[in-house]
Design a protein that fits this description.
single chain, alpha/beta, Adenylosuccinate Synthetase, Chain A, domain 3, Adenylosuccinate Synthetase, subunit A, domain 2, 2 domains, 10-stranded mixed sheet, 4-stranded mixed sheet, 13 helices, 32% helix, 20% strand, binds 6-O-phosphoryl inosine monophosphate, binds magnesium ion
């Protein structure tokens, strides 16, 4: 029995969804623990591509229960569209459960998201670059203790009273539904979703007692965490291992494994510090080769190089017990690969931890080491890896992975070399701090 948290180690879009999907083959429960439709988890099933925003990837597997958990903010209208999309692709094989404690994103949250971005643009000279899905405002109302939860959607009187109070706190632009209209719409959507809405903590506690495997599917990432990310260029939830426990109701001592997911390079969507960003031709080439466009908003992602200062920070913050390194195929064919080992700060001082104030990143320069690159991931090489496993991995790639282990003290246990399920390699349990000896055996 294991409880495994899959956590983004960078700025999101590390392929957490794909790694969770592969792991879910042996799980009984997969739980989204935070965020909402800001997430975009892409899963490739044969020729079909699915992007899940508010559903956990567990709903795609027969015999698995996919829970959208208590820590989430859920847009019920968007959720229906998403469920219909998955159904139309004949992919809804698992059981879908929605936490009754998840908060509801309402139409006005989206307007507020846009309005808040305008304030930031005026004040900071730059927007956060939110996904515009109403995430921040929905969490603000949750903290304000006048938010609505999925549990409220089958109580006409209570719902109306709560909406009245909630909307009285806002100055709303014209065109949004009135309290009466919104009450009616929410009751309707609530009725349709009712078969899925339940208290999910007891389901998970019973699962723990039976010894069933549970995966906590992280969304966003450690560096977008409200407290520990590059504030204020962060999201409004806690996408860390600790946050995954708060957002699921699983007690901390039950957590067995924390897998940190990182790309072999780095990307970021939206504003905020990104010391290793490459704004030149190489960054453009990465965007092209990696198909780096947002799965939720379609925005081009900023691209750059792996940052070991941030990866070490994320490792310590989350207690990663292993790493999953994704998109290694995208770097195939490069002579050498830049990796930031540390930062050079003002006056040439070396820094091995990230600054707290976002603006202080402007005065830093990453100090790169250049690691020998590996050959292109041709269909033939992919086939050999599928057949022969670790032995077929290019030796340069093994050295690169070993380097990450040395830098973080955490074994790389998973490598992803394509979007397909079977383009994922399990390297084995890394018991020691360094898997180098195991691989050279
Ligand atoms: P997945 O789960 C990448 C970013 C947004 C913005 C900031 C705040 O696919 O990895 P928000 O809408 O959350 O208020 O936006 O956070 N962001 C993500 N970036 N992947 C995500 O999710 C993200 N979710 C939010 O781009 O900079
Ligand atoms: Mg994404």
């Amino acid at each position: 029995m294991t409880v495994t948290a899959v956590i983004g180690a960078q700025f999101g879009d590390e392929a957490k969804g794909k790694i969770t999907d592969v792991l879910s083959e042996r799980a009984k429960y997969v739980v989204r623990t935070g965020g909402g439709p800001n997430a975009g988890h892409t899963i490739k099933l044969g020729d079909t591509s699915l992007v899940l925003h508010q559903l956990s990837v567990g709903v795609l597997r027969r015999g698995v229960t996919g829970i959208s958990g208590p820590g989430m903010v859920i847009d019920p209208f968007q959720l229906e569209v998403e469920i219909a999309d998955v159904q139309s692709k004949h992919a809804l094989h698992g059981t879908l459960v929605l936490s009754d404690k998840a908060h509801v994103i309402l139409p006005h949250h989206r307007s507020e998201d846009a309005w808040e971005e305008g304030l930031r643009a005026k004040g900071y000279g730059v927007e956060n670059g939110t996904t515009g899905r109403g995430i921040g405002p929905a969490y603000e109302d949750r903290s304000g203790r006048w938010g609505l939860r999925l549990a409220d959607l089958d109580r006409p009187e209570l719902l109306r009273r709560r909406l009245d109070v909630l909307l009285s706190t806002k100055t709303l632009p014209p065109g949004l539904p009135s309290v009466d209209e919104l009450t009616a719409q929410l009751l309707e959507v609530g009725e349709r979703l009712a078969p899925h809405i339940q208290s999910t903590e007891p389901i998970l506690w019973d699962a723990l007692q039976r010894g069933d495997s549970i995966i906590l599917e992280g969304a966003q990432s450690a560096l977008l965490d409200l407290d520990f990310g590059t504030y204020p260029y962060v999201t409004s939830s806690h996408p860390t291992a600790a946050g995954a426990l708060v957002g699921s109701g699983i007690p901390p001592q039950e957590l067995n494994e924390v897998i940190g997911v990182t790309k072999a390079y780095a990307t970021r969507v939206g504003a905020g510090p990104f010391p290793t960003e490459d704004t030149g031709a190489m960054g453009e080439a990465l965007r092209e080769a990696g198909g780096e466009r947002g799965a939720t908003t379609g925005r081009p992602r900023r691209c750059g190089w792996l940052d070991l200062v941030l990866l070490r920070y994320a490792t310590r913050l989350n207690g990663f017990t292993s790493l999953a390194v994704t998109k290694v195929d995208v770097l195939g064919g490069m002579d050498s690969i830049p990796v930031a080992a540390e930062y050079e700060g003002p006056g040439g001082a070396r820094m091995s931890t990230p600054p707290t104030v976002a603006e202080d990143y402007d005065a830093l320069h990453p100090v790169y080491e250049h690691i020998p690159g590996w050959p292109e991931f041709t269909p033939r090489l992919k086939e050999r890896i599928r057949r022969d496993g670790v032995h077929a991995l290019p030796s340069e790639l093994k050295r690169f992975l070993a380097h990450l282990t040395e830098a973080t003290g955490v074994p790389v246990e998973w490598v992803s070399y394509g979007a397909r399920r079977d383009e994922t390699l399990f390297l084995g349990r890394g018991k020691t701090a360094s898997p180098v000896s195991r691989w050279s055996a």
